[in-house]
Amino acid sequence: MISDVLKVFRGLSNKDFRILTGIEMGMKHFEWVPVEDMNKYTKLPVDKLAYRLKKLVGNKLVVRTFQPYEGYQIYFEGYDALALNTFVKRKTITAIGDEIGVGKESVVFEAIKEPELAIGDPIPVIIKFHREGRTSFKQVKRTREHIGDREHFSWIYAARLAAQREFDILSTLYPKVSVPRPVGHNRHAIVMELAKGSVLVKTKLLNPEWYLDEIIRQVKLTYSLGIIHADLSEYNIFVSEDGIELIDWPQYISTIHPNADELLKRDVSNVLTHFDRKYGVKRDLEELLREIKAAGVTAEEAAEEAAETETETEIASKEIAETGAESEAEGANIIR
Predict the structure, then answer these.
(1) Fold type of domain 90-194
(2) Which residue has the higher pLDDT, 146 or 224?
(3) pLDDT per residue as tens digits for the range 104-142
(4) How far apart are the C-alpha atoms of 329 and 17, rounded to whole Å?
(5) Selecting from 2.40.128.50, 2.140.10.10, 1.10.8.60, 1.10.10.10, what CATH number does the domain 2-75 have?
(6) Catalytic residue at 231?
(7) Of these residues, 231, 248, 261, 284, which one is catalytic?
(8) Who contacts 297 (Cβ-Cβ below 8 Å, separation ≥6)?
């Protein structure tokens, strides 16, 4: 639980973060990082390393096994601490608040970012911690094409690639498409501006036809850029007086994906079903699909965009461990 991480965060030192980073690096090669290898990663004397490892295990940031050898893993709590430490040092956030959303594959917290100019007001943001692989890594491998056929691949890689993938697509779409503005990314976590309004499924609209038209317009804009959300429904659309915002993008696909037509149809069908069921607003599915596809990019442009995105994701998968001065600085204070 991130709330447990926050309780111990202020007490973590640069040496603790060095150990967590060392285990993170070691997990590229081992399921359980052997204690003998920890000196190589951390450069700490054996006695000091043993003391701090015991403390990290007690704080539930590190997990230890003695079979078939003494080895260590960081789990999500340790990974959360590393990401939070980087965000604070970069001044991506200055305070973290309450949990505002949780799902099988992510947990979302409210936070504050200081304004770019000293005279401005603090900016409300959210931190989305990806949790892919937490319940079943094998299931994640079956349903996430960006993981591919990698054999030695843990939840760290799954969650980190999902976050990188979502941050990249938000950066590509914003501000052309109405999505939250991406602010920062580290490991398995993304900082983005707070989506305006409230989630569609929990909102009673006074003018549902206008909002439906706006959702379809945003889907059309996205398609024109060669992208399909692929997981769109009333649960990841925010509505406000200003319009709508589409959230939750880690499952997006290119318009040249083999299942593009099927997934686009599912996205639009989900939206139409909600408006029909809740408001009696009906639209012709096939006609809308033709309109959306008419706005599509050429096959060559879509292929080029897909290739660039694939390259970016592959690069991200090779940069699993973030070392250097950032990871060794003293843990900054995060306040509630």
Answers:
(1) Phosphorylase Kinase; domain 1 (3.30.200)
(2) 224
(3) 789 999 999 988 777 788 999 999 999 986 554 444 444
(4) 8
(5) 1.10.10.10
(6) yes
(7) 231
(8) 224, 225, 226, 255, 305
